[in-house]
Design brief:
The structure is a single chain. With 222 residues, this protein is α/β, with parallel strands linked by helices. The chain has a single domain, classed as Phosphoglycerate mutase-like (Rossmann fold, 3-Layer(aba) Sandwich), CATH 3.40.50. The chain has 6 helices and 6 strands, in the order βαβαβααβαββα. A 6-stranded mixed beta sheet has the order 3-2-4-1-5-6. α2 links the parallel β2 and β3. α1 packs across α2 and α4 crosses α5.
Length: 222
């Protein structure tokens, strides 16, 4: 039987809803903050994890991730939040463009070139690159949590899905509409001897999720 002290859990939390009424693909752009509902989602995650024995906190540097972390960290004043660039949103050449139903950048022929190869993908950071940086960030968070500890990382949709896909042996190429990474969701990785042994998923803010808009979700990883 494996000793419980060898087990480390790393929870990847996707940030809450962002205030983005114009449908901009914000990617890594600054000054995109949580909406009122997004802040409520963050509070819900904090409540859901309040009794968890978290020993390490880590977050993407983007505002929406930091704001999601805030109520979680407030319950753990003895823990310092480590800002980690490796868990940031995926780079995307289309960021700053509008993808709302009424003014979609997909109508612009100049955008089509960036969509030519979904296997890489041609519009942004390579999937394998995302996996590599997330893998090392998860490993470092596990080391920081210590034997028997738990770490919590606030990150973004695509990086979380890439980490999970790699851990579960899925193909990295995928339909973005099928990602199981809802806003304020928690994807948990159980590590034993430094290797991911199990993955679980939870949606503590499921009742707060907005209606899906599939036309925008194709490129807006958030």
């Amino acid at each position: 039987m494996t000793d419980a002290g060898d087990r480390v859990v790393v929870h990847l939390v996707r940030h809450g809803e962002v205030d983005n009424p114009d449908g901009v693909l914000y990617g890594r752009l600054p000054d995109y903050h949580l909406s009122g509902r997004g802040r409520e989602m963050a509070e819900r995650v904090a409540e859901h994890t309040a009794d968890w024995p978290i020993t390490h906190l880590r977050s993407s540097p983007l505002e929406r991730a930091q704001e999601t972390m805030a109520p979680i960290a407030a319950l753990r004043p003895d823990l310092r939040v480590v800002t980690d660039d490796r868990v940031i949103e995926a780079a995307n050449r289309l960021e700053g463009r509008v993808f709302s139903a009424g003014a979609s950048a997909l109508r612009d022929p100049r955008v089509w070139w960036h969509l030519r190869n979904p296997l890489r993908p041609s519009w942004g950071e390579a999937y394998r690159s995302i996996v590599a940086r997330m893998r090392t960030a998860i490993r470092d968070a596990a080391d920081a949590a210590g034997p028997g500890g738990q770490a919590l990382i606030v990150s973004h949709q695509l990086p979380i899905w890439m980490a999970r896909s790699a851990a579960e042996g899925r193909r990295l190429v995928h339909d973005p509409r099928r990602r199981e990474t809802s806003l304020a969701s928690i994807t948990s990785f159980v590590l034993r001897d430094g290797r991911i042994a199990a993955v679980s998923y939870a949606e503590p803010a499921a009742d707060l999720l907005p209606v899906k808009r599939s036309r925008r979700k194709f490129v807006a990883g958030a």
